[in-house]
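Posting this for the archive.
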Amino acid sequence: MDAQSRGRADEIDPADQWVLNPRTGHYELRLGDSAAQQRPPGPAPRATRTAPSRTEPATSPSVPKPRRGDGPPGGRRGGRSRKAGGGRRKKALLITSGTLALLLVGGGIAGYLYYDHLNGNLNVTDVVGAGTGGFKKDQPINILVIGTDKRTGAGNEKYGDKDSVGHADTTILFHVSKDRTNATALSIPRDLIANIPSCPTKQPDGSTKTIAPTKGTRFNNSLGQEGRDAGCTMRTVKELTGIEVDHFMMADFNAVKTLSSAVGGVPVCLDKAVNDKEGSQLNLGPGEHRLEGEQALAFVRTRHGFGNNSDLDRIRMQQQFLGSMMREMKSKETLTSPKKFLSLAEAATKSLSVDSGIGSIAKLTDLAGELKNIDMKNITFTTMPVLDNPAEPEGKKATVVVNQALADPLLQMIRGDVSLTEVEKQEQAAKEAADADAKAKQDALLQGNRAAAADVRVDVYNGGGPKGAASTTLNWLQNTKGVPKASNLGNAPAKVGATQLEYAPNQADQARALADMLGLPATALKVGTADAAARTPMKLTLGPDFQQPGAPLGQPVPQELPKDVQQAQADKAICAK
């Protein structure tokens, strides 16, 4: 049963059953027992299960029954009326008026829609510790979005290799900033030469099988091949970028077809005509088009219509398509249309495979809440900078390698949670002026008394420094500098962009003494607002700028990308060339 016919009995359209609750200001979908008789496949919803609003109770007996002509904007008016069965309890499903945008394309599933049914749609994978175990409210979020070329689904076998287990054909690392104001979507080319680390995978019988590492192979082999699951791709991305992934979301060809159709088509613009007879069969004239279904899939698959017919040009087209789909999903026309809303929820959950950390609608909703306020103008698409593989002969280049000169500053910026968006940087101009003031005050903190080394209490964490940096620093402090009250607490809960020392106002003398020993600049000192209790240690977190104890810190995280790094903003429509 498709999403638009859910709840239909006696040819009643769900759009006719939406009623405005005057108490809450929300539209509510009222479903009687006739709907229950034709509920969608999957576990039956519990009779007492409702989806509460975060601010109001889900329903009340005072909510009016559906009337002819009632319905939210975008719903059909003048629908058929129906009689209420005597004594039968009505069920109500409240859909929040917040964001519906797919994490698959950088947004989130928001709304309470047939919880049991939609949960049954999701395919959940245990990645055996490949990620962090879950995102944290006060830290950046890193989600790995994987598009597999597995040919499952009606009509997809015609694209060749119908029995393939699939590869990581399209991979995007979606980084959401700590303050939830901006995001970076980093595409990783499938033909990039990478090292795939050892990978534990969960087997159907519940046992765990470890797949041996592979060096110097295509990145796309991190999924599907030799039994590798998405957790193996997560581990490969961490080794490649130094960024630990929180969660993954994966979809196959059907996702593009069903999601593009659910929103009524995705607008794209072509600078010139395209007729790809060799691969995707895409055949479009110049100008604007609205693509859905097979045409949408052909657009994101084609490699023979744009640029120099390479996978890198295909990545740019995919980024443009995803940006357009995101804009379409966040548009008023989608968010206020019950039919589109229901269709999107159904299509999205059926299309997705996720890790167990976000393996339910409730968990996806929590994640969506973290992402819903990101403005499209503050989402940047970019691609891992690469070079032709020098090991391959001229004229037979088939793979690429990382261009370290361009990739290093880009990855440092992502790890350091630095926004790539020009808009975001402009909005922070005033903040930078305030920061200069703060720095002057911070410098003043270094002026004053120093505690004796024996009185300095500090916990040392490694938040992105060299392997073993916390242990090395502890030994140095205790044995060289006479700081017996230092402790090594191992890896920090989250990576930091630069080394920092956190302390309370009444620990200023200890902070000055430790800063002198380590050669920390004033910018590394982070003073709190409240005094600490007696014998409370300060917190020293070693970042990627840390080299060795006593040595000057390395270069700070770059604030600007090299000009040759490709990037595009999600709010801008660009004609494909």
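The CA atoms of residues 5 and 13 lie 7 Å apart. Confidence is low (pLDDT under 50) at residues 1-20, 31-113.
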